[in-house]
Amino acid sequence: MALLEGLIQLSSAFPLLVAVLLLLLVYLHSTGVSNTEKGKAPPGPTPLPILGNLINLKKPYDSLCELSKKYGSVFTIYSGPKKVVVLAGYKTVKKALVNHAEEFGDREITPFSRDAFEGHGILFCNGENWREMRRFALTNLRNFGMGKRRGEEKIIEEAQHLIQMFQNFKGTAFDTKEPVNYAVSNIICAIVYGSRFEYNDPRFKVMVSRANDTIRLAGSPSVQLYNMFPWLKPLLRNVSHVLKNVADNLKDIQSYINNLQETLNPQDSRGFIDSFLTHQQSKELSSAFPLLVAVLLLLLVYLHSTGVSNTEKGKAPPGPTPLPILGNLINLQKPYDSLCELSKKYGSVFTIYSGPKKVVVLAGYKTVKQALVNHAEEFGNREITPLFCNAFEGHGIIFSNGENWREMRRFALTNLRNFGMGKRRGEEKIIEEAQHLIQVFEKLKGTTFDTNEPVNYAVSNIICAIVYGSRFEYDDPRLKVMVKRTNENIRLAGSPSVRLYNMLPWLKPLLRNVSYVLKNIADNLKEIQSYINNLQETLNPQDSRGFIDSFLIRRQSEEKLEQNANLFNEKNLLCCVANLFAAGTNTTGATVCWGLLLMAKYPHIQDRVQEEIDRVVGGRQPVVEDRKSLPYTDAVIHETQRVANIVPLNLPHATSCDVHFQGFFIEKGTIVIPLLTSVLRDESEWAKPYMFHPEHFLDDQGRLIKRDAFMPFSAGRRVCLGESLARMELFLFFTSLLQRFRFTAPPGVLEDELDLTPTLGGTLNPSPHKLCALSRS
Ligand code: HEM
Question: Does residue 583 have its Cβ closer than 6 Å to ligand 1?
Fold first, then answer.
C-alpha cells in the first residue's frame, strides 16, 4: 500500500524516471550486487534497476526481518540505488556495534537529515563535530539531570504535574499521549533551558506537536523515497513540510537561546544552553591566543621602547613587569581584587599594563582623595575605552572630555535639579514609584521571587520621569526591553571579552560579545530617538516636561543665537539620555537589591531598622525629612553601599596633563584607575572592612557619622552626577519597603546560605537569588 502511495505520487515523474533509468543502468550494474575484489559481499535479493529492492515502506522493519530469514543475519538490500547492509539478530548486532564499534560507528547522513541539520548537532553528524558535541552533551546531561539527585527531583516534580493532569480527567476516557509527551518533554526543557512549561502553554504545545510530527513524517514513505532519490524532492510535498517544521522549531529554540543569552551568568548555569554559551565565550578567548602570539613578536620592539622604565622627567610609579603585548595578566574575572593585592606589594600608586597600555592605579583612601580632590584638574579626564569610543564617539557626559563634557555635565546637572534631584518634586516622584513597587511586592503574597526585575523597573522609571516626563507600567514591553538591554550592556562591559577588546582592539573580530554590546547600544539609541521624535512633535517651549524637552528648547535658542549650536545637537541629546539610563538604573537598582538581600541575611539588623522606622515614622509614608531621625537605618544604607561596592574599579580616568604626584611622574594621557574597592575596604579606615557592620557609620551615642572614606560615588571633578538623586532614591525605596515588608530567605533556605558573591560585570550586582517579602501589616 505504502509503496503504491509513493508510486502514485511518483506517477507524474514517470517519463523522467524512464530517462534516468537508462542512464543509470550502466552505473547500477557496475556498483552491482556481485562480489568485489576485496571479498564476498553479503547476499540479498536482486534489486530492480534504480528502484532497488521494493521494501514495504510502511513497515520496513517487518520486511527486513522477513528477509533475514532467507538471507541470514548479514545481508544486502538496495534502497533505490544505494547499497544498504542489514544486520539482524542479537549476536550479529552486538558483535558489530560492540566488538567492531569503531568500524560500524559512523552515522549515515540521509539527504533529509543533511538538509535539516547540515552536519551539526549530535544525532546526524560524524567525526570531530560529533565527538565534541556528544562529549559536551554527556557531561552536561550528567550535570543537569541524568543519574543525579537533581535529575531525580525534576522527574518526581514532573510526575506530580502529570498525576494532577490525570486526576483532572476524573476517570473519564482520554488520550494519554499528549500529557505524557508534555511531561517527558518538560524534563528535556528543565535540562536544556533550566525551566519547565505549563502543559497549556501554547508555545510548548506547538513545540511538542512539531517535534512529534517531524519524527512521524521522517519515517513516512515520501521522506524514505526522498532519502533514496533526493532529486524527487519537488514532487514530495511532505518533505518540504517536515523541513519547514524542523526550521520552525530551530527558530523557536533560537529565540529561547537569545533570551537565555541576555541573562547569562557564567557563574550560574541554568542548563545545557547556558553551559554551551559559557563554553563558547571561553573558547572565544582561547581562540584569540595564536593571533596574540603572532602579534606578540611584532610588537616586542614597540613595547620595549614605551617600556616600564623611568622617563627623563621623573620616576614612573613601580609595578609588576609586564609581558610583551599582553601586559600584566590581571585576573579578568575580579580585576579589583587583583589590583588590591598588587597595591600591598607596590604601594598606593603603581603601574600596570593593560595589554600594551600603561595604567596607573591609585589605591587607598588617602591617595584616591588626594588625586581626585586635591589634583582634580590633572586627574579629571575620562579615559574613553575603545568600546565606548565606538558607541558614543565622544558625545554625552560619561564618555566625553573637554568642552563637550563640561557643557553637557553642566546642562544635565541643572536639569536633574529642576526635574528631580533634591527637590520636593523629585521626592514626590520617588514616593509615587515606591508605591507601585510595594503593590508588586504585595501581589506576590509572601511567595519567593527575584527582586531584581521590579526594583530595576522602579529605578528606571525615576529616570524616565526626569528624562521623558512620564513613567511606564512595569509590564510595558518597551520598559522591559530597555532595562534588560541596559543591564546586559553594563554586565557585558565588564566581561573578559570586552576587557580584552579594550586592551587589544584588533581582536574585535574574534570577540562576539563586543558586536553584541555595540548592537545593544545602537538599539537603545534608536529607541530613545523615537521617544525624542514624539516629544519634539508636542514640544511646548513654555512648559518643559523633562530633560529632553529642555534640551530641545535649548537647542532652538542656541540655534537662534548661533552659539554653541554644535554642542546641543542630536547625538549629544541621544548619548546624554543613554548615559543617564545606564548610570542611573543598574547602580541604584543593584544597591536596593543588595540592601534587601543583606536584610534577609542579617535578620537581627533588619529587626533594628524596622523597630526604628516603626518608632519614628509609624504607619505614614517615610519622607526625606525623616532621614535625620533614622540614624540606624541611614547607617545601614551607607554600609550597604560600602559593602556592595557597586562600581569596584570606578570609571577609568586619564591625566589631562603631565603630573608629578607623590614623587612619581605620570605623563599626560595616562589611564588612571582610582580604585574605589581599595577605598571602601581600606584597612586603615574601616574597623571591619570585609564585614557588614553598620556601626562603621555610628558614634557611641548611636548618631550617624560622616566618613570621608565613604566614596561609592567617587569624588572630584567627575564625581557621580546623580549622587543626590541616588541617595534620595535609596533612602525612600529602602525605608518604604522595610516599613511594609519583612524580607526573608525562601522557605527551606538558611540565612547562612544566602550568597553574597557578586556577579561579574561593569557593576557588582548580587548573584541571581530569590527572597520572600512578607507583609508586616
Ligand atoms: C547607587 C547609585 C550610584 C552609584 C554607586 C554611582 C556611582 C558612580 C561612579 C563611581 C561614577 C564614576 C565617577 C568617576 O568617574 O570618578 C559615576 C558617574 C556618573 N554617574 Fe553615578 N552612580 C549612581 C547613581 C547614578 C544616578 C541615579 C545617575 C543619574 C541620574 C548617575 C549618573 C552618573 C553620570 C552621568 C556619571 C558620569 C559623570 C561624569 O563623567 O562626569 N549615577 N557614578
Answer: yes
- Tell me the pLDDT tens digit for each residue of 523-556: 989 999 999 999 999 999 888 888 999 999 988 8
Answer yes or no: is the C-beta of 368 below 6 A from any ligand 1 atom: no
Q: Give the pLDDT band of residue 212 (cuts 50, 70, 90).
A: confident
With residues binned 3-state (H G I as helix, E B as strand, rest as coil), the percentages for the chain, rounded to 5, are 60, 10, 35
Ligand 1 centroid to residue 532 C-alpha, Å: 23
Which amino acid, residue 484? K
Segment 296-316 shows an average pLDDT of 57
Are residues 587 and 704 in contact, defined by beta-carbon separation less than 8 angstroms?
A: no
Residue owning grid cell 530641545: 552
Query: What single letter denotes the amino acid at residue 342?
Result: L
C-alpha cell at 733: 525605596
Show binding-site residues for heme. 720
Dist CA 554 CA 558 (whole Å): 6
Is the CB of residue 396 below 6 angstroms from any atom belonging to ligand 1?
Answer: no
By CB neighbour count within 10 A (0-12 exposed, 13-18 middle, 19+ buried), where does 160 fall? exposed
Kindly indicate the confidence band of residue 310, based on its pLDDT and cuts at 50, 70 and 90. low
Q: Does the interface ipTM go beyond 0.90?
A: yes
Write out pLDDT tens, residues 25-48.
434 444 444 455 788 999 998 888
* Cα–ligand 1 centroid distance for 720 (angstroms): 3
Mean pLDDT computed over 626-655: 97
Atom index in ligand 1 nearest the CA of residue 653 equals: 15
| Cβ atoms within 10 Å of 231's Cβ, excluding its own | 11
Q: How far apart are CA 65 and CA 77, in angstroms?
A: 12
Alpha-carbon span 627 to 727, nearest angstrom: 11
Q: Ligand 1 in contact with 638 (CB < 6 A)?
A: no
Q: Which three cell numbers stand for residue 515?
A: 558586536
Instruction: Tell me how far the alpha carbon of residue 647 lies from the centroid of ligand 1, in angstroms.
Output: 9
What's the number of CA atoms in the CB half-sphere (13 Å) around residue 735?
A: 32
Ligand 1 close to Cβ of residue 677 (< 6 A): no
Q: Which of 361, 713, 732 is the pocket-test mutation for ligand 1 (most atoms within 8 Å of CB)?
A: 713
Name beta bridge partners: 758. Answer: 766
Average pLDDT, the chain: 85
| Ligand 1, atom 40, residue with closest C-alpha | 398
> What letter represents residue 234's amino acid?
P
> How far apart (Å, rounded) are the C-alpha atoms in residues 758 and 690?
14
Neighbours of 221 (CB within 10 A): 21
Residue numbers belonging to the annotated binding site:
720
Instruction: Give the nearest ligand 1 atom to 729 CA.
Output: 27
DSSP-derived pairing of the beta strands 357-362 and 671-674: parallel
> Which residues lie below 8 Å from residue 511, measured CB to CB, with a gap of 6+?
284, 285, 288, 497, 498, 500, 501
DSSP E strands in 621-670: the ranges are 653-654, 659-661, 664-666
- Nearest of 253, 258, 255 to residue 214 by alpha carbon: 253
> For residue 770, which of 453, 448, 454, 456 has the smallest C-alpha distance?
448
Determine the Cα–Cα distance for residues 690 and 707; give it in Å rounded to an integer: 16
Pick the residue whose CA is nearest to atom 2 on ligand 1.
Answer: 588
**What average pLDDT score do residues 617-625 get?**
95
